[in-house]
């Protein structure tokens, strides 16, 4: 079996399901699986069902399930119809187990029910990503289908639900590959003669090529949201973990990704999660925002700062052009503009590096020139460049002490545009304070 592509017929209405395990915080791998299901369903004009695997009441708490829903909403992934909750489908699972018991295909074992796996033959399926996959039945143990407390296991719920819901494609992580033969055995024991199209997605690994682990790596989607990754940027990046557009253009509108996406193009090799690449893509999305859009995006982070509580949209729109080009995460924004709204804390290392002679003379000359200059970026730029030339310095060297005094750091937003926003009085006051500090 292979995914429909050029020269092949596409099912009239492909039907997929996303069935996350409702435990722990939303995981990058879970989000990638959700996205690939969504992309393929939308690409083919199919349907996508959200199935909540909540048969284990101790693990599937309301809080965990709500976190999953919140994650999907943040990513902008929509589903067709109401969510299907396995906790409400127990009668279907009980009927399936009873059928297997009556047919001699299952038996009781210390209060639980086990499915009797045939000793001969193989259970095989074709996987879009991995090719032909075969499991000798002799290597599959008789597995539990109903626990001693009467609840159905993962295998039963999957087999019954996929049949009942008419699921045509099962797209999920590689870590679930070894559960597939058990589900197929149960499916066949229910009388099914067809097999869904499977696509087991590659593992996501870190830079050391180790599988992402919540004990070692930052795998929580919530963490990246809270650091200021835009949902559109996250979706774009997740789409590249195992798949790539045929034309090589990685950053593109979601509509184009949907149009190009095909499960047949998913690579079986592990996909490396690269934070640098994610933040670079996020930076591209931030640069595409206009002043108002960028101001709205950084607003929650700025308003969380004591100095930013009362800043309005207009004030943030004024500073947006200063920092948008170099901002990669929204959480970085407050630190870059704090000097405009509060007294800066001067970095001691930057101060020491910038204040070597003739820094004091440059600051004095700048204070005198700025007190008389027209207050615009062009005039301030020309004034400081002229001062630097008098000392045989290029502008970069001449502006270093001014930048540290005014902003607190050696690196930051464009200096002269920042001075305009800061205002003449505040700028001159900071230059005067620096003169006093050097005189001590």
Give structural notes.
Helix 4 packs across helix 5 and helix 7 crosses helix 9. It is elongated and about 95 Å long. The chain has 18 helices and twelve strands. The N terminus is likely disordered. It starts with 14 loop residues before the first strand and ends with a helix. Strands 1-2-3 form a three-stranded parallel β-sheet. Helix content is 46%, strand content 11%. It has four domains: 144 residues, 3-Layer(aba) Sandwich (Rossmann fold); 113 residues, HUPs (Rossmann fold, 3-Layer(aba) Sandwich); 52 residues, Helicase, Ruva Protein, domain 3, CATH 1.10.8; 92 residues, Orthogonal Bundle (Arc Repressor Mutant, subunit A), CATH 1.10.10.350. The chain is mainly alpha-helical and 440 residues long.
């Amino acid at each position: 079996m292979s995914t429909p592509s050029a020269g092949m017929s596409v099912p009239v209405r492909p039907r997929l399901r996303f069935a996350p395990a409702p435990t722990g915080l939303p995981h990058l791998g879970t989000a990638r699986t959700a996205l690939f299901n969504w992309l393929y369903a939308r690409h083919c004009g199919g349907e996508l069902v959200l199935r909540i695997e909540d048969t284990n009441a101790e693990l599937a708490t309301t809080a965990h399930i709500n976190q999953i829903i919140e994650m999907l909403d943040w990513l902008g992934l929509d589903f067709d119809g109401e969510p299907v909750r396995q906790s409400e489908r127990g009668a279907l699972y009980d009927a399936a187990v009873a059928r297997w018991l009556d047919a001699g295909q299952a038996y009781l074992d210390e209060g639980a029910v086990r499915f009797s796996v045939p000793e001969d033959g193989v259970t095989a399926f074709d996987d879009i990503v991995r090719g032909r996959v075969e499991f000798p039945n002799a290597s599959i143990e008789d597995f539990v289908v109903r626990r001693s407390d009467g609840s159905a296991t993962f295998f039963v719920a999957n087999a019954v639900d996929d049949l009942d819901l008419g699921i045509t494609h099962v797209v999920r992580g590689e870590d679930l590959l070894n559960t597939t033969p058990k589900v197929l055995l149960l499916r066949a024991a229910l009388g099914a003669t067809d097999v869904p199209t499977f696509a087991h997605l590659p593992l996501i690994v870190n830079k050391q090529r180790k599988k992402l682990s919540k004990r070692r790596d930052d795998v929580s989607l919530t963490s990246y949201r809270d650091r200021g990754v835009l949902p559109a940027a996250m979706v774009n990046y997740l789409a590249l973990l195992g798949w790539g557009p045929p034309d090589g253009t990685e950053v593109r509108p979601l509509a184009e990704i949907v149009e190009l996406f095909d499960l047949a193009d998913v690579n079986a090799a592990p996909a490396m999660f690269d934070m640098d690449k994610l933040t670079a893509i996020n930076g591209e999305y931030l640069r595409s925002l206009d002043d108002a859009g960028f101001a709205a995006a950084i607003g929650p982070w700025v308003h969380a700062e004591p100095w930013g509580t009362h800043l309005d949209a207009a004030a943030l729109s004024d500073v947006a052009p200063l920092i948008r080009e170099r901002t990669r995460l929204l959480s970085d924004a407050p630190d870059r503009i704090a000097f405009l709204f509060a007294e800066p804390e001067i970095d001691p290392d930057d101060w020491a590096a910038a204040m070597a002679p003739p820094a004091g003379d440059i600051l004095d000359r700048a204070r005198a020139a700025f007190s008389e200059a027209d207050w615009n970026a062009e005039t301030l730029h020309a004034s400081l460049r002229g001062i630097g030339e008098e000392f045989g310095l290029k502008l970069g060297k001449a502006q270093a002490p001014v930048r540290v005094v005014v902003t607190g750091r050696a690196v930051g937003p464009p200096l002269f545009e920042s001075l305009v926003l800061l205002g003449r009085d505040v700028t001159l006051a900071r230059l005067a304070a620096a003169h006093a500090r050097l005189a001590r």
